[in-house]
């Protein structure tokens, strides 16, 4: 069953006070995510990934378009927004700044449990210990402060806090990017495990194809939404996207991926030009080796190919 649906959703910002510039952090994005599904949002810095997460958390009101959560129109229904406060939880990229440095771990974990589950006293204490066990942390950590923990331990605390209210959806925004390499696998394994145990929808946001690939393996298959310059350019299963990317941006992403043996597809990679995000037509048109006149004028329509979706004139548009 569908839990999240975006229909032609746009988030527009104005930057600068003298030379005003319009930025489309997201532009006409439509997507659907099912209950208990694992998905990845793939894109480089500035693609609109964090804005998308903020939209899903109902922290960012779209400029236009619709966000439906469990079938309810979020910006026409105050109760839906209240529901989201509990049912959609977020894990930040930076595990340190996500926690109050002056509060013990126990105290940081208490807040959402008291607020949403109304537990106190012994029930609250045992819930905190249950959570610490669930994320693989020792109970003794409860009286420590964030500065006394490693990055990996801190991210586990953040995960414990996010799952404390039994959310339906967990959004992990680059959850391992700021961690030492040795902690990364453990955190992804934990997220995949929790997803299975708690029947959650898990949205993994990443710029790193290697992380998307490992996550996909751990959850046993996941759909990916590739975004560039605020546009959804391709949608499909991660395994298909890596095997045969369709959109030129996805091809670029896959060809830039260096595996553990130092291999990458340098011939494909070299075709791509330097350039920014184009505000007219396809946002990738400045860098695309396959660019045509149409790509500069108008963003193409989506084409379906073998159950996948792509927006590119190479496939019709
Ligand atoms: N509040 C804001 N005001 C103005 N522009 C914004 C605002 N938030 C985001 N943007 C712009 O929208 C675009 C998308 O930003 P977003 O943070 O969503 O990208 P991202 O993919 O998460 O990148 P990163 O990983 O670097 O955070 C960027 O050009 C950014 O500068």
TrEMBL record:
Domain ABC transporter: 4-254
Gene3D superfamilies from the UniProt entry: P-loop containing nucleotide triphosphate hydrolases
Pfam family, one: oligo_HPY
GO terms, biological process: peptide transport
One of the record's GO molecular function terms: ATP binding
Keyword Nucleotide-binding: yes
PANTHER family assigned: ABC-TYPE DIPEPTIDE/OLIGOPEPTIDE TRANSPORT SYSTEM, ATPASE COMPONENT, ABC-TYPE DIPEPTIDE_OLIGOPEPTIDE TRANSPORT SYSTEM, ATPASE COMPONENT
Protein name: Oligopeptide/dipeptide ABC transporter, ATPase subunit
The organism of origin for this protein: Acidianus hospitalis (strain W1)
Lineage: Archaea, Thermoproteota, Thermoprotei, Sulfolobales, Sulfolobaceae
């Amino acid at each position: 069953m569908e839990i999240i649906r975006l229909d032609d959703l746009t988030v527009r910002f104005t930057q600068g006070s003298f030379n005003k510039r319009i930025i489309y952090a997201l532009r006409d994005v439509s997507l659907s995510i099912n209950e208990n599904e694992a998905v990845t949002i793939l894109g480089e810095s500035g693609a609109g990934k964090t804005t998308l997460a903020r939209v899903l958390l109902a922290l960012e009101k779209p400029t236009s378009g619709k966000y439906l959560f469990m079938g309810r129109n979020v910006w026409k229904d105050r109760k839906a927004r209240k529901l989201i406060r509990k049912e959609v939880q977020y894990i930040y990229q930076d595990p340190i700044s996500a926690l109050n440095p002056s509060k013990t771990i126990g105290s940081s974990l208490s807040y959402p449990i008291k607020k949403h589950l109304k537990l106190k006293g012994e029930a609250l204490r045992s819930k905190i210990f249950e959570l610490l066990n669930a994320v693989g942390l020792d109970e003794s950590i409860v009286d420590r402060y964030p500065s006394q923990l490693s990055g990996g331990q801190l991210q586990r605390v953040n995960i414990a806090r996010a799952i404390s209210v039994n959310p339906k959806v967990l959004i992990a925004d680059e959850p391992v990017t700021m961690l030492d390499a040795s902690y990364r696998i453990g955190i992804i394994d934990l997220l995949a495990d929790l997803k299975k145990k708690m029947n959650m929808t898990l949205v993994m946001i990443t710029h790193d194809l290697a992380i998307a690939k490992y996550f996909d393996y751990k959850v046993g298959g996941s759909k990916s939404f590739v975004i560039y310059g605020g546009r959804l350019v391709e949608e499909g299963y991660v395994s298909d996207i890596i095997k045969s990317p369709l959109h030129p941006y996805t091809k670029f992403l896959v060809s830039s991926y260096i595996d553990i043996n130092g291999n990458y597809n340098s011939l494909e990679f070299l075709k791509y030009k330097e350039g920014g995000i184009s505000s007219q037509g396809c946002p990738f048109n400045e860098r695309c080796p396959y660019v045509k006149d149409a790509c500069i004028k108008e963003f193409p329509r989506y084409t379906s190919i073998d159950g996948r979706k792509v927006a590119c004139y190479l496939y019709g548009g």
